[in-house]
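User: Hi! I'm a student and our assignment asks us to look at how structure tokens line up with a sequence. Could you show me two examples?

Assistant: Happy to help. In each example below, the sequence comes first and the structure tokens follow. Example one:
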Amino acid sequence: MGTDEFIKEFKGAKISRVACLGAGPVGTCTMATMASRMPDVQFTVFDDNTNVVCGCQSGPLPFFEPGLEELLDKVRGKNLSFTSSLDQAVANSQVIFVSINTPLKTTGTGKGKAPDLSGWENMARRVSKASNGAHKILVECSPLPISTGETMRKVLAACGHPGTFEVLCLPSFHRGGNAVEDLSNAETKMLLGSQDTPAGQVARDTITGLLGPWISGDRIVHSNVWSAEISKLAQNAFIAQRISSVNAVSMLCEKTGADLEEVMRVIGTDSRLGP
């Protein structure tokens, strides 16, 4: 089973079974939103932490996101479920979203600074084993460092299992504490990164079709996986720079008697900087 079989299986396919690995705020909010828009698709969310699974399945939630509890009430027991069995989640899915944490290294080179990708590597091994040779599309959807997709592809290839995988990147741009509203916004745009290969293009088209009831195709920006990963980090950096600049201007206004709102309004009239 290889690339040709992957293309044959997914080209024009209608996805009906989706899994998400990681029941944190990003994974749970994203899957709950998708489940509410796609009643004909069965969503299964996996987490190793049984307390998290129980909280998401029957409450209370292990984290707070405004509107999430109400959204879950509409889809739990219908087309959204939670499980602590990775084998079950992977075996019963065609598409797998991966939403796990990426802590900093605690030992070795880059300790306290560099991201620790061992969790992603281990998850790739577990997915490869649980897939038992079946073709799967994996979609990174949590905040992640550059090269995560490449790392997962290498691990999947090194595992030697006969299943063929395509790894895509769908970075999360919603705001913490405002995730449900952001994801439910009709103006929401998405960035989908994929490989520029025949199998990668089929996987891209498959995920674009899956997202259709939620995000129309014209609101999805396509790029390669590296660009998608860098775009998320670059946006975070630009936002941080903008906040830092506003804080600096605010301090200057306080010392001179200038009105910060007036200054920012003037700056906002420049198309290179505003609104």
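Example two works the same way, sequence first and then tokens:
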Amino acid sequence: MLKLISLDEEPLLCRNQSLGIMISSYATIQKCNEAYCRIYRQNESAFLVPCGKSAVLCADENADFAEIKQFVDFLGCDTILCEQSNLEDDKTVRKNSGLILCGEFAENDDEIASPQTTAEYRSVFSLLETDGIVFEDWFTDITLRIRRGTAKLAAIFENGEAVATASILHRTQNRCILGAVATKESNRNRGLATELIRRLSEQHTTVLCLPELEAFYEKLGFRACGAWYEYKREL
């Protein structure tokens, strides 16, 4: 049975999995803003966070995946992001997948330029592929994460306009997951995104990588350390 975790409970299982960084960062925000998200636990075998229509799952081999799928349906989520490769059934279809890349980096004390005004945030947002998300929702979410120390947003501005951006969307202790990286088309091939990633990367940095970007991150020193899978549930 899946139950809500208490605000003082640490999802310890998640420390050993890359997607666990996400769930641990959600737990950090939840302690300061209980309404931000809910985290569910299935004994000591799985943790689940519904995020809109998607659910992030961190589980070991002892998890009851049939129960988890039913619970995801109950929550109204139609996709599951996880590290399990064997969740397909007559109602669960693999929608996307890719490698998880990990990098070990020295601590970087370089200053990171971040947007300071709403106009600068809006300029950064214009570079991103946001899948139907409106600026106001994105702005509220990213600034909350930054205030709670679970995210960083970096950008390079020229003439008051963002020309490149990169982000950490999840942080916990000395581990992080990189978020979206984008460069304005007219400013590509200048190494701007590479520079931002180098400045943002922390001691243990993880990327949920699409196949077409593997070579780019491998040049920066990242190496495969797992795989991620996104499944579509047919409700």
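Here is something you could point out in your write-up. The CA atoms of residues 152 and 168 lie 5 Å apart.
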